[in-house]
Each structure stands twice: as C-alpha cells, then as structure tokens.
Amino acid sequence: MCTNRKWNMSNAQQTLAILKPHIVKNPFSLNQVKNIILKSNFEIVCLKRKIISIEEAESFYSEHKGQFFYNRLVSFMTSGPSELMVLARENAIQEWRLLMGPTKVFRAQFENPCSLRGQFGLSDTRNATHGSDSPESAVKEIQLFFPEFS
Ligand code: UDP
C-alpha cells in the first residue's frame, strides 16, 4: 500500500528498498530495521510484503546471470516473504545505500559495523537489504514492484 497524500517535498528522491527474507522472518530484526529507517529521515511511501516469484527475481537480478552466486541469490530471494518499500527523502538513493553499507558482509562489518548490512547481514547473499543504485534503476525497480504507484 502507498500513502495517499501527494508526495511533494522539494529535493525529494525515491528509491526502492527491499528487506530480504531473513529480516522479515525475524520480527525483532524487522522492527529494528524499520526504526532505523524512520530515524534516518526516510519516509516509507509504499510498503508491500510479498514472496518474490522466481520470474521476478530472475528479471530483477538479470545483470548477475552467470555469476557464481546467481542461483543461490534467486533461490534465497524467493524463499519467503520480503518487504518492498518505496523510500523518500533528499538524496534517497545515495543515503539509503550509505545506510545499507557495502554489499559484502565481511566488508560491511569491518568498514561500517553500524550499517544495516554490518548489523543484520548474515552472508554476502543474505545481506539484509537491497537499494536501487541509480535514478534509472530506481524508476525501473519501483515500476516493477509498485506499478500502481508509478
Ligand atoms: N551477491 C552475492 N554474492 C556476491 C555478490 C553479490 O550473493 O559475491 C548478492 C547480494 O545479495 C547482493 C546482490 O547479489 O545484494 C546484488 O549484487 P550487487 O553487486 O548488485 O550489490 P548491491 O547493489 O545489492 O549492493
């Protein structure tokens, strides 16, 4: 579901965030991650809990097809419900990626232990969260999971 009010803060940007299945499975982690999101001045504009289908995961991660981790990634992302969000704030794409921390969990734990991946990541695949990496991917990813909002 998405907030009804028209979102019109000047300088605001939107990004797609995914809280991956191992976070959603653990109510304590889920609650902690959501509190961190709100404390970091993001507005949760849309929120949907769903099991990502194999077709959606394959299309979402198509740039990684052929990588050693691709099959493991698709199978993890479809293993249970994820929470999908459109987050908004100034400079949302970069700020969300900063809050997430590096992709690889050992780097996140070493370089930025307070990041979401540093705190909640379990492995390079189960690294807690996803965030769009550019304005173009944000538009594409929001359209994929929230066609009713775009
Ligand atoms: N991934 C993985 N092993 C790796 C690198 C990436 O399992 O060695 C997974 C991880 O879940 C990551 C996703 O593939 O979030 C997409 O990788 P990308 O390089 O796009 O990183 P992100 O944009 O998520 O930081």
Automatic annotation (TrEMBL):
Gene Ontology biological-process entries: CTP biosynthetic process; GTP biosynthetic process; UTP biosynthetic process
Protein name: Nucleoside diphosphate kinase
Domain Nucleoside diphosphate kinase-like: residue ranges: 12-150
Documented EC number(s): 2.7.4.6
GO MF annotation list: ATP binding; metal ion binding; nucleoside diphosphate kinase activity
Classification via CDD domains: NDPk6
Listed transmembrane segments: none
One Pfam family it belongs to: NDK
SUPFAM superfamilies: Nucleoside diphosphate kinase, NDK
UniProt keyword terms in alphabetical order: ATP-binding, Cytoplasm, Kinase, Magnesium, Metal-binding, Nucleotide metabolism, Nucleotide-binding, Transferase
Entry binding sites for ATP: K20, F69, R97, T103, R117, N127
Catalytic activity from the UniProt record: a 2'-deoxyribonucleoside 5'-diphosphate + ATP = a 2'-deoxyribonucleoside 5'-triphosphate + ADP
Species of origin: Acanthoscelides obtectus (Bean weevil)
Record-stated family: Belongs to the NDK family.
Enzyme active site: H130
